[in-house]
Structures are given as structure tokens and as C-alpha cells.
Amino acid sequence: MRRSLVAGNWKMNGSFESSTELLKALVSGLGEGESKAEILVCPPFPYLALAQQVLSNSAVGLGAQNLSEQSAGAFTGEVSAAMLKEFGVSYVIIGHSERRALYAESDDFVAKKFAAAQVQGLCPIICVGETLEQRESGHAETVVCEQLDAILDQCGVKALAHAVVAYEPVWAIGTGKTATPSQAQQMHSVLRAAVARRSTQVAGQLRIVYGGSVNARTARELFAQPDIDGGLVGGASLKAEDFISICKSVS
Ligand code: PEP
Predict the structure, then answer these.
(1) Which end of the chain is more exposed for a tag (fewer CB within 10 A), N or C?
(2) Rg of the Cα trace of the chain?
């Protein structure tokens, strides 16, 4: 039985003050047992210490949005997996489409970050997803499977036993255009089958979450699909009421 995960990706939003308010509202609205899901927020780096403090002894865990593929050294501006661990981070988002598109992160580079996270015991949330053009030209499944294969080939299928996959169609991110439950379920089952070809055990245990304009209205039906194990939530995770409602949509 897979326990669903709902993770909030705050991206580069908020201030010290608004983050404090949001964190406190989540702690009071998501006490132990309020949601059946495991819950996580991924604030910007400067607010990790604040989040660690406010979330201590709460039902809300802590993730990061990015990390360096390097472990330490002369890499100005980078943040290592070991540093993240010191702030109570247990998950890290890898290969988000914004990083792939805006910072030219290749499949190969994403796989290096995946490995760097796991060396320190962080659980990577590996994002895969196709653009609208790729979907419309019939290449969506090939594209997402290639993105996942880069991890499987470089890190091995067993590495996925300690990871989460996020299916995030690029055309649904921040656009208000959510994939339909059946579109999302179809891709999640394709991804699970791709892992099952290497290990049915890992595939059966793997959490595959959906991301792309999830909101309080669409979450319940998406999360009810057999291969959808929760969500990665961007915009709606910045509003406590909406995020709490999404977390409670897991049945
Ligand atoms: C995301 O960026 O991971 C995301 C899913 O964003 P949004 O929910 O805003 O589409």
C-alpha cells in the first residue's frame, strides 16, 4: 500500500513574513491525522531554517527545490545535499521543467543531481513531463519515458525505491490547465509499467505524484486514480486554505 504524498513547491515566492504566516497556518490546519497523505513544503533556500523551526514536531515535512550535483567546493551560488540535510530537509525536487527549460538542465545532469541527493539520504522527487507540442505530435509517452530512463540507466532501478516520480505535463504547469484525471492516470500507468519492466517490486511501491495546476476543485478526482499517489502543487500551495484542502482531498 503506497501512502500518498502532497508536496507544495513555493518556487521563488514569498517573503520572510508571508512564509512565516503560511507555515504557521499549515501547522495549525494540518495536525496529525488531518490528512491521510504525507505532506511536504518546499520553500526557497533562505526560508529553510525558518521552516525547520516552525514545522518542528508538526505533520508537515520539509523539502528543497533544487541542489548541486557537487558535494562541496568552489561552486559559487550552489547548495549541497549535505547542507540541505542540516536544515531538516528530507526531499528535494529534481529536474523540474522550469529548471530543464530555463537553466538548460539535461537528463544527464538531472541524473547527477538525483545521485547527489541519494548519497546524503535525501529522497529525490524526479519531475518528468512533455510540452504541448510533444503531446500534440504524439510523442508524450516517449519523452517522459526517456526522462525517466536517464535516471534508471545511470542510477539503477533500485535507486527508485527511495525516490518519488512527479508527472508534470509542462502545458499544465502554472497555466490553470490541469490534465484530466484520465490523461494523468494514463501517463502514470505508462511510467509505472516502464519501471515494472526492470523491477515489478520497485514499480509497485513507487509513488508517482501528479503536478500541473492542481487545485482544491480538481485534486480529489485526480488523487482517486489508481496510479496517482498524490500531487506536486505549485501556485495553490501558496494559499494555506487551498493547500490544506488539497491535502485533505486524499482519501
Ligand atoms: C509545479 O511547479 O511543480 C507546479 C505543479 O505548479 P502549478 O501547480 O502552479 O501548476
Answers:
(1) N
(2) 17
Taking the centre of ligand 1 as the mean of its atom positions, its distance from the CA of residue 96, in whole angstroms, is 9
Atom of ligand 1 nearest to the CA of 168: 5
Per DSSP, the residues of 86-115 read: HTT--EEEES-HHHHHHS---HHHHHHHHH
Decide if 60 contacts 28 (C-beta within 8 A): no
Give φ, ψ of 164 to 5 degrees: -125, 140
Contact residues for 165 (Cβ-Cβ < 8 A; gap 6+): 125, 126, 128, 148, 191, 206, 207, 208, 209
The residue from 38, 69, 96, 98 that is catalytic is 96
Query: Tens of pLDDT along 149-199?
Result: 999 999 999 999 999 999 999 999 999 899 999 999 999 999 999 999 999
For residue 44, report the distance from its CA to the centre of ligand 1, in Å. 15
Quote helix, strand, coil % in the chain, to nearest 5. Answer: 45, 15, 35
* Catalytic residue (one of 98, 105, 130, 168): 168
Cα 5 to the chain's mean position, in Å? Answer: 9
Known catalytic membership, residue 168: yes
Known active-site residue 96: yes
Q: Which atom of ligand 1 is nearest to the CA of 175?
A: 10
**H or E element: which one contains 128?**
strand 123-128
